[in-house]
Design a protein that fits this description.
404 residues; alpha+beta; seven-stranded mixed sheet; 27% helix; globular; binds coenzyme A
Length: 404
């Protein structure tokens, strides 16, 4: 069956298209909620799938600026993808992915990015797991640091208005050197991060905001919620860290020390930490974080040549890829990466791979050698994977601190 997939024309269509995923979240697309959402997702970047005129699915794409190793790249942030339960497994998603990726390509955004609700869905459309995130739950009694911290600077509670002034400064400093982080507009800060819609928080309290300042400069911040609970007269409360971002070194230590020391809490939880977070080195017993690692960002090279040319490389070298891309055939074939530029070539290929494997390695979160071992990349010339590893290596693990 074929479905018509077109950009939404107005807020009403936008609401109906978002209602597809709303089915699964138990969410009603009220006008107020949709107006708020449309502050960050332009209406025409929300596609609706129709059958006989009725909307049966929706898929959106935020206009993001993504940090990749050494550069900032315009990127489509795929979001609110859903098919109405009445129309599942009839090709609605496939039709939406087709139109969406064609549009992203036509707009000249070389990358698309998403968080996957299930890891089985997006590989067929060329997305590869590109980062991992760690969920932790740190018991109060195991929150000591390995080395004593002599406090520097002050931590101050601020309201959302002051946070709107201070937090972006920290975010921008950190995100510029962290692959996977996104630029945030003022609307993003206001409507997604700081000023909550009524009913947010899933049973925990409202967001609290603190800033860490040294010499009057903001160098870190945290957003967290309290989830109070008492069992047998003893506090079993939780501090839920929504987002803690700080400059490297002392500011990161200071902001986490603050979070771990909040009284009454039995544990401090966080779910979207990078795999190389400093807590591994700060805590005396990091094993007690009970870390659980899961997949994070999924990356799709929409334009292989542009995407490979957009990032910087950790080592000089030349590679010839043979890319398989059934869903976006304009990427198929051989690409020579040399001097940081990727061009079409007829040279003998050294690495053969599906475009989704290139997505896995693109941010530096996974190595080509690992992908060869896992059967996702074919090494046609000995040493090519090791050379690719050196070139694609990044200083830090990719990190996206929020699900969009
Ligand atoms: C996931 C979802 C959008 C799929 O929509 P759909 O219209 O049923 O998908 P399609 O019929 O177009 O299927 C396209 C392909 O994906 C596969 N597929 C779809 N959903 C899948 C799933 N949950 N797990 C594994 N494969 C899936 C289909 O088998 C089909 O494979 P093929 O074309 O290679 O044979 C739909 O189930 C849904 O709305 N789920 C709840 C919300 C959600 O998870 N959204 C994704 C947010 S990231």
């Amino acid at each position: 069956m074929s479905f018509e997939v077109v950009p939404c024309a107005d807020l009403e269509e936008f609401g109906q298209a978002v209602f597809a995923i709303g089915q699964y979240f138990g969410m009603e697309p009220t006008e107020e909620r949709m107006e708020r959402f449309a502050k960050n997702l332009p209406i025409e970047r929300m596609h609706a799938a129709r059958e006989n005129g009725a909307i049966v699915g929706g898929a959106g794409a935020f206009p993001f600026e993504l940090t990749v190793p050494g550069a900032l790249v315009p990127t489509a942030g795929v979001t609110v993808v859903g098919t109405f339960p009445t129309h599942r497994r009839r090709g609605v998603l496939r039709a939406m992915m087709r139109t969406q990726l064609d549009d992203v390509h036509a707009r000249g955004e070389p990358l698309a990015l998403l968080w996957a609700s299930e890891d089985t869905i997006y590989g067929r459309f060329g997305y590869g797991m590109a980062s991992q995130c760690t969920e932790v739950s740190i018991p109060r009694q195991h929150s000591a640091f390995a080395r004593p911290l002599e406090h520097e600077g002050t931590v101050r509670l601020v309201d959302a208005d002051e946070a709107l002034d201070l937090f972006p400064r920290v975010w921008n400093a950190v995100r510029r050197k962290t692959p996977g982080m996104l630029g945030r507009t003022r609307n993003w800060w206001e409507f997604r991060i700081l000023f909550e819609a009524p009913g947010a928080g899933e049973g925990a309290g409202p967001k609290r905001f603190v800033v860490l300042e040294r010499d009057g400069r903001p160098e870190g911040y945290a957003i967290y919620r309290h989830k109070p609970k008492w069992t047998d007269g003893i506090s079993d409360s939780e501090v839920q860290v929504v987002e803690a971002v700080a400059l490297d070194g002392r500011p990161t230590a200071e902001i986490w020390r603050y979070l771990l020391d909040i009284d009454w809490s039995a544990r401090t939880t966080a779910s979207l930490l990078p795999v190389d977070h400093s807590l591994w080195w700060l805590l005396a017993t990091p094993r007690n974080m009970r870390p659980r690692v899961g997949d994070g960002l999924w990356v799709r090279l929409v334009d292989v040549g542009e995407a490979l040319s957009a990032r910087r490389y950790g080592a000089d070298g030349t590679l010839v890829f043979d890319v398989v891309d059934e869903f976006c055939p304009w990427n198929e074939g051989r690409w020579r990466l040399s001097g940081g530029r990727a061009k079409r070539t007829t040279a003998a290929p050294q690495l053969r791979l599906d475009v989704n494997a290139l997505g896995c390695a693109y941010l530096g979160g996974f190595t080509f050698s690992g992908l060869v071992r896992g059967g996702r990349v074919e090494e046609l010339r000995r040493g090519a994977a090791a050379r690719a590893d050196a070139m694609f290596a990044a200083e830090r693990a990719p990190w996206c601190p929020e699900i969009f």
